[in-house]
Amino acid sequence: MSENESDTSGFPLIGDQFPELEVATTHGPKTIPDDYEGQWFVLFSHPGDFTPVCTTEFVGFEQRREEFEALNAELIGLSIDRVHSHIKWTEWIDEELDEDIGFPIIADESGDVADALGMVHPGQGTSTVRAVFIVDPEGVTRQVLYYPKEIGRNVDEVLRSLEALQTSDEENVALPSNWPENDNFGDKALLSPPGTVQDAEARTAEADQEGYESYDWWFTLKEI
After folding, report:
1. Is position 129 annotated as part of the catalytic site?
2. Is 65 a known ligand-binding residue?
3. Buried b / exposed e across 138-150, counting CB within 10 Å, b at 16+?
4. What is the set of domains in the chain, with CATH numbers?
5. Contact, 39 vs 71, CB < 8 A?
């Protein structure tokens, strides 16, 4: 195994079961993903407490927390610092920026959690990269996003991704770019392309019967 392979051996890929982790948080000990069974969760990591970009992200996630919860999703932060440091940081955010952080923050002073999730970037010391994991109610990793330390995350995109994944699951459809505000197709969904000649012929007939917006047998949209 090469050095790079070793460094990323714990990285959960899309479709992988999220690894079981026993963690200390600002809300007490938790077992992930078991404690979130039946719920989605969004776990996002930070290089450290009291860093400017991370602080803006914490505020941004907290301000949208109720929207995540409305989608049956819980937020979980992570930083390679102790619980006491997390508490002091969130107190500062409350006092100076008037936001009371309501989601748990994992304490990972040893870096074990970040290492297990492949979030320690080679050459960056012990700092975690800005990773986002969206995990479904069965504990399956559904989406992974990475940001460099210099650029804050787009909370709108994390919310959009969560809603899109849930819609795709519920409706058995794919979703176009920028859904639900695609410039050309609005909030319509895409049907999966047929895999056989017979299915292609059936799709054409189905589109005519159901009134779908069909450009071809492999490119068909429907209202959801």
Report:
1. no
2. no
3. ebebbbbbebebe
4. 16-153 (3.40.30.10), 174-222 (3.30.1020.10)
5. no
In contact, 31 and 21? CB cutoff 8 Å: yes
CA–CA–CA angle 33, 34, 39 (5° rounding): 70
**How far, in Å, CA of 192 to CA of 168, rounded?**
11
Residue-wise DSSP of 116-179: HTT-B-TTSTTPBPEEEEEE-TTSBEEEEEEE-TTS---HHHHHHHHHHHHHHHHHT-B--TTT
pTM: 0.91
Band of pLDDT at residue 110, cut at 50, 70 and 90: confident
> What confidence tens digit (pLDDT) does each residue in 163-184 have?
999 999 999 999 999 999 999 9
Among candidate residues 23, 24, 43, 54, the one labeled active-site is 54
Residue 123 has pLDDT above 80, yes or no: no
Question: Which phi and psi angles does 3 have, rounded to 5°?
Answer: -60, -40
